């Protein structure tokens, strides 16, 4: 099992940075001390601290508590035909890339490359797949590290989001549509973590699939380095409006589902609470 990308402390830090709240302001608004705030970001906190911080940071307290207790567990998803995840090491972290194909026509699309596309290429050969496209969720280095090799070995054209240029890649934007055999792929703008980040919604497999890059993780989301408000809004409107059984394929960490994130993601669960 691939571990979760973020801890409760990571989420507290991301929310505080995204909201641009200083330690002193956060301490005042939560009735905590600045020392308690810094300790929480370092992972040293108790339940009372979590309950004090969550509402100020716009986080769902119960979900954040689960993470702080190591009780947040990803769903156990059965493999589906036509979807494969590849997890590779990049520096001191790991990164995901994905392969999607039509089980009947054997036409395939790669989504990002990770640090090493070798296993993806082996799987494609094993399944007798024909690459028709390489779709990039965004252009951060860990997601396109092996693009030169994957492009050369697959012979497939590369598509990249607007505002994130990659040499010799075709620019695409929101609402772009692709066909992959009997499958359809829809690009949805989920910028905020990156300037033009795209989520690709694949329909036609046993379950709908959303390949989200770093827009969302199991139990968390990418840092809103470009725009925290845009990251929150786009995730709510473009990913969490998909059917609950949609498999969410993040750029880091394990697979999850839309339903799971609506119930237990600290950034979003409050929007769906009864």
UniProtKB/TrEMBL annotation:
It holds the Pfam family Lactamase_B. Residues 94-252 form the Metallo-beta-lactamase domain. InterPro entries: MBL_Glyoxalase_II (IPR051453), Metallo-B-lactamas (IPR001279), RibonucZ/Hydroxyglut_hydro (IPR036866). Its cofactor is Zn(2+). SMART domains: Lactamase_B (SM00849). The keyword Hydrolase applies. Keywords: Hydrolase, Metal-binding, Zinc. It comes from the Bacteria. GO terms for molecular function: hydrolase activity; metal ion binding. The keyword Metal-binding applies. Gene3D superfamilies: Ribonuclease Z/Hydroxyacylglutathione hydrolase-like. PANTHER family: HYDROXYACYLGLUTATHIONE HYDROLASE GLOC (PTHR46233). This is MBL-fold metallo-hydrolase superfamily. It comes from uncultured Chthoniobacterales bacterium.
